[in-house]
Amino acid sequence: MGAFKIFSAEFKASCGTVEQFLKPTLPEVAIVGRSNVGKSSAINCLVNHKGLAKVGKTPGKTQTINFFEIVTNGPRFMLVDLPGYGFAKVPERIRELWGPLIEEYLRTRKNLQGVVVLVDSRRVQESDQAMVEWLMRLKIPVMVVATKADKVTRGHRQAALRELREGLGMEEDPLFLSAYTGEGKQILLDQLREVLTLDSPLP
Known about the structure:
This protein has about 200 residues and is α/β, with parallel strands linked by helices. The protein contains 5 helices and 7 strands. It has a single domain, classed as Rossmann fold (3-Layer(aba) Sandwich), CATH 3.40.50.
């Protein structure tokens, strides 16, 4: 089997309420992480499209659930960008809107095949641990990806992986990803293919 490749990515919808969610016609993979984890850069790297997800100078910029249709050399799917969590400068009122929106999506979306959880490769936050634990309780396949891998020297890689694994309560090491160098990109793409080819509840 050849490498999994993404041919195109197209923005489809930006949803601020549950009622705006797209009809579940394709398998979906969601991507979530803290507001300063480099989520937009990771998405743009993954889909070979520098301007697809807006890279903001202010963490917490994404305030809606954004749907992108992805065409590949395998299954077509929807990549779903969830609002970042855990950023103190986001107004409380907005955080109160995000929380139920994200929770409703993750708990009820029948065509959700898996979730990519982005964590900073240099440190684990309590909110990261809480997100991973919650997804595991929901029995949703989780792929934990440590971003900004280029910031971690080769000599500190094993220690960083151990700290991430223990901090998140995982048995396996997270995957290092660098949006700057492309490290880990193909491995993550191949993991996405595995998740997308699991039995889907779609007809």
